[in-house]
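Wait, can you check?
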Amino acid sequence: MAHEGTSEKSSDASATEVGQIIFGAKNLEYQIEEFVSSGGQTVNILLSGKTGVGKSYLTNALIGENVAAEGYDIDPQTDDVTAYEVVKNGVTITVFDTPGLADATGNDEEYLRKIKERVTHFDLFLFCTEMTSKRFRTDDLETIKKLTEALGEKLWEHALVVLTFANEVPLSPTKKTDDVPEATAFNDSVLAFKKAINKHLVAIGVPDITAANVPFTPAGELDDPRLPDREDWLTAFWISAFKRINKNAKAAFLMVTVDRISFSSTLSDGNEEIKVRKDGNVVSLGQFGNLSIEDRNAITELKKKLKESDFDEKLNRCFQKGGTSDEPGQDSKVSGPSIKVNETYSEEIIRDVFGGVSGQLIGELTGAKSGKKYQTFFGWLTKYFKKSYPTSRPT
C-alpha cells in the first residue's frame, strides 16, 4: 500500500508540474516571448588554434559573411588579438582571433595579457585543431593549459572543439584491411581526439563533468559538406554552437543566422517502439525519449485534457502576432551558406531553448503533419522570431 501511495503521489506531482508549464507562469507563450526578448544585441566568440588550421574559413562559414580574410591568419610573430566584427539583422557579432601560444617565440605571457585585455566577455569559445594530425599535438595541449590557467576553468563551460580539415582525413591501412566502414573509422578518429583532450582537461584541473560535456564537431569543405559520418558538417557545427553558446546570447545568435535557415525534407517515418507496462500504461519509447514513466503518463493524461481546452487557439494566437504561416519556409534573400535543419535538428533546438519537458510537450501538442512536428514548430518560431525580435534594443 505504501508503495502504491508513493507512486500515485509521484505521478500526480508530475502531472501538476507539467500542467504548470502549460497553464502557469511559465506557459508556452510566456517562454516564447522570453526567448525572443532574451539577451542583448551582441555575440562575442573567442577563437583559438594554431596558424593555418582554417580559423578564418570556419569563422566565415559560421557567420555567413566574409568577415575574416582567408589565407591571412595571425602571423605567429605578432602579439595582437584580431577582432572581426559584423552587424547582421541588428546584432553585432564579434569574433576574437587569438595569437597562437606555445609557438616557440617565448611571448606567451604577453599574448595572454593581450587576450585578457581585449576579451573581457565571450559567449562561445571555439578551439580549433587539425583532424588530419595522427595524434593530438603537444603545442595544442600546452595552449589549452595556458588558456585555462589565464581565463579559468569556466572557459570550457561554453566551449566547442572543432576538428578542421576533416574532409582530408585518410583511412589508415589497418582500417582498410579490417574492412571497417569508413564512417566507423572516421568516428573512431573523432573519439580519439575527444579522449585525449578530455583527459588533458581533467589533468589540468577542469572538473570531470565540464570536460565530459565539451562537444567535438568535425569541419570540412563548404562546396561538398558531406563527411563520412554526416551529410552536412556545417549544419551540425551550427547546431553544436547554438547549444553551447551562453544562454543570454542564443536569441541574438539565432537572429544572425535566421535568414540562412532552410528545412530539410528528411523526415521521420513515424514508426515508434511501443511498450506496455504491467500496470496497463502504454509508453511510446521513440516518442517520449528519456522522460520518466511518471512524466510520460502525465503528458498522455494532459494531452487528453488539452483536447478539451483552447490550447490550440492560444498557440495559434501567439504565432499570429508575427503574421506567421503554418508551414516552415525559406526566405528568398539568403546571406551565406544554408543551414539545413531537419526534424532531428529542429527537436534539438526546441529542447535546448525551452527545456526537456517543455520541448517534449511542444512536440506532443503542436500536431504532427507527416511527422514534421518539431520542424513545423521551428518554422513557425523562426518566422515569428524575425518579425518580433527587438532589433533596436540597446547593447
